[in-house]
Amino acid sequence: MSEINVRKARREDCKAIRALIQELADFEKMPDGPQIDYKTLERDGFDGQPLYFCNVAVCNEKVIGYTLSYYTYSTWHGKSMYLEDICVASDFRGKNVGIKLLKTVAKEAIENNCHKLDFVVLNWNPAQEFYKKYGARDLTSKEQWHLYRFSAEDMAKLAFDCE
């Protein structure tokens, strides 16, 4: 097998990243979920102040995996990082690509003084065991935190109600 390298994503990687986003959505049984195109990824990640950080795993010049993360802030500890996605193309799973990507994100978080790295995993996803193997804790069961969300429609209702 050819060597697999992890590097910072470039603008020209966005089409391949978008394809992997779709592969991840298909795996998560949400094929209609992604509403983003590669142009939005280019704009939000490479124009002006980037909204996210992205690394890619590459084999023979082909993007075979990615991570997408961004900074968050904790009022208890300060700067932290959120891992939005980690995805490895199905042909490359089980070949240590995921751990290379995860280690790169963890290293970036430490180098940038982040006190934690948060992420969510679907309750049926076997990747939970991968994360636990490397020390991740399930906050839902251990600390009783639950993830909530307001949709754009719900936010609009809230904003309207405050006038």
What order do the helices and strands come in, and which of them pair?
Blueprint: E1 4-8, H1 14-27, H2 38-46, E2 53-59, E3 62-74, E4 78-88, H3 97-111, E5 117-118, H4 127-133, H5 139-142, H6 152-161
Parallel strand pairs: 4-5
Antiparallel strand pairs: 1-2, 2-3, 3-4
Helix pairs in contact: 1-2
Overview of this protein structure:
It contains six helices and five strands, in the order βααβββαβααα. By secondary structure, it is of the alpha+beta class. About 20% of the residues are buried. GO terms for molecular function: N-acetyltransferase activity.
Strand order of the largest sheet: 1-2-3-4-5
Give the overall silhouette.
globular
Specify Rg, calculated over alpha carbons: 17 Å
Report the portion of residues in β strands: 15-25%
pLDDT < 50 runs, ≥5 residues: none
Average pLDDT? 94
Query: Into which percent range does the helicity of residues fall?
Result: 25-40%
Number of separate strands: 5
The helix/strand class is alpha+beta
Distance between the termini: 61 Å
- Describe the largest sheet: 5 strands, mixed
Individual helix count: 6
Spell the H/E element sequence.
EHHEEEHEHHH
